[in-house]
Specification:
With 250 residues, this protein is an alpha/beta fold. The protein has eight helices and twelve strands. The protein is 31% helix and 23% strand. Strand 10 and strand 11 form a beta hairpin. The chain is elongated.
Length: 250
């Protein structure tokens, strides 16, 4: 039975917060960065659902994908596109909405906005203009992959996507040689073989873990040295987006 504070419930001498506590309302003139599922639609927080349901408008990297998510959770809010080609043009419009006291929720295709996704320009502009920016944390491919990789996670360095051009990629990788900890990259299926060849050239004895299709039906973790993973793909076509984690010998 509840004792004292109505928001607290006692179970076997342990006091925990009750879910009956009323959540704080959204703050006017605030930009919310809402993390969304990277594959499994169940991977969304109660706070994210409430924020998307109560905000004035949702800025989405891909409105088609956003509509699928909203439909799955019975959410009906106005959508505006905000991708890498329109972010600069949209930023002024979003600041006007914040100035008018609206609440704006920013979502990417999947995962956490700004992390290798659009949104940085809008966040910086909102902060420079004095508006509140609030994260609604949740799914992220990096944090889904690294704990399950088996590689050291006490210290890591997130690189994101490497440049497309070969020269720039090699220079970036060589510059990372002095950076301690596990290196973490995002890579597309079209360039994963290229990255494995680069790793084989620069850090041939490194431990590499490839994580693909995270939280989806065909989720897969592949582990080995770069040449071993290249052999794996000698008869297979890479599929899905990858998180690539590299532990180099000391």
């Amino acid at each position: 039975m509840p004792k004292g504070n109505s928001n607290l419930i006692e179970f076997s001498n342990r006091t925990v917060l009750s879910c009956a506590m009323s959540p704080a309302p959204l703050q006017l003139g605030t930009l919310y960065l809402v993390a969304t599922p990277i594959g499994n639609l169940e991977d969304i927080t109660l706070r994210a659902i409430r924020t998307l349901r109560e905000c004035s408008v949702i800025a989405a990297e891909d409105t088609r994908r956003a509509r699928l998510l909203l439909k799955a959770h019975n959410i009906d809010r106005p959508l505006l596109s905000c991708h890498k080609f329109s972010e600069a043009r949209r930023t002024g419009q979003f600041l006007d909405r914040l100035e008018n006291g609206e609440t704006l929720a920013l979502v990417s295709d999947a995962g956490t906005p700004v992390i290798s996704d659009p949104g940085e320009r809008i966040v910086r502009a909102a902060l420079e203009s004095g508006y509140r920016v609030e994260s609604v944390p949740g799914p992220c491919a990096l944090t889904a992959a690294l704990p399950a990789s088996g590689l050291p996670a006490a210290e890591f360095h997130f690189v994101g996507f490497l440049p497309h051009k070969s020269g720039a990629r090699i220079r970036k990788l060589e510059a990372l040689d002095a950076v301690p900890g596990t290196l973490c990259f995002y890579e597309s299926p079209h360039r994963i073989i290229k990255l494995l060849n680069e790793l084989a050239s620069i850090w041939p004895e490194s431990e590499v873990v490839l994580a693909r299709e995270l939280t989806k039906k065909f989720e897969e973790f592949l582990r080995g040295r770069p040449v071993e993973l290249l052999e794996h793909y000698s008869e297979r076509k890479p599929k899905g987006e990858y998180v690539v984690m590299v532990h180099r010998p000391t």
